[in-house]
Prior knowledge:
The complex is a heterodimer.
Chain A: H1 3-22, H2 27-38, H3 42-66, H4 72-92, H5 98-117
Chain B: H1 3-23, H2 28-38, H3 43-67, H4 73-81, H5 84-96, H6 99-122
Amino acid sequence: MSERLGRLAAIATAAGAFSGLFGVGGGTIIVPLLILWLSYGEREATGTSLAAIAVIAALAAGAHALYGNVDALKALLVGVPAVGGILVGTALQQRIPERAVAGAFVVVLVVSAVALVV
Amino acid sequence: MELADLIAALAIGFAAGMAGGLIGVGGGVLFVPGLVIFLGLSQLEGQATSLLAIVVVAAVGAWRQGTYGNLRLKDGLTIGLLSPLGVLAGTLASNALPERALALSFAAVQLAFAYQLARRAFAPRDEVASPP
C-alpha cells in the first residue's frame, strides 16, 4: 500500500469512527488532515471532505438502521430545509462576513450543548 | 409534536445547511440537538437520524463545491469507501454506551467545535486568510 493510500485509509477510519459514535459527518477530522497530510488547500479540503462525508454518513446511517434507531421522517424534517440552507449559504458566501456567521454559530452550539445536557 | 417545535426543527435544519454553505462545516452538530430537543428523539436516535440527513446535505454540498472546482472526487470517494471499519467501531461503541455518557461526550464535541470556530471568528484578520 502506498503512503498516500495509507494516509487516506487512516483519515477514513478515524472519520468513520467519529461519525458512527457521534452522528456527525467527520469533517472536523477530514478537513485538517487533508490539509496537514496531503497538502490540500482549505477550500479543496472542504469540498472533498463533503464527498467523503456523503459516503461515510450513508454507511453509518445503514449501520445504525440495523439497530432500529433511524427515524427517516424526522431526518427529512431537518434535512430538507438544510438543503435550502446550503444553497442560500453558498449563494451568499461572497456577501456575508465569515466571522459574523462563525460567531453566531458559536452561540448556537454552546446554547444547544447546555440544553442537551441539562 | 407541537407546531412551535416543528418550526424550530425546520429552522435549525435551515441554519445547519446555511452554516455548511457559508463556512463549510457539517450539519451534524446542529441536527442532533435539533432532533433531540425539538423532535423528541433520544440522544442515540438523534445521532443515528442525523446521519441520514447528513447524506443529503453532504451530497448537495459536494456538488456545489464541485462546480467551484473545489472537489477532488477520487480522494473523497476513496476516504468514504475505506471508512467501514471505523464506522462499525463507532456504531458499536455508541450503542454500547449509556445514553447519559453519549449526551455528555456529544456536548463536549460541540464545545470543542465552538472553541475552534470562535478562534477562527475572533482571530486577527491575517490569521484567517485562506491558503493558496
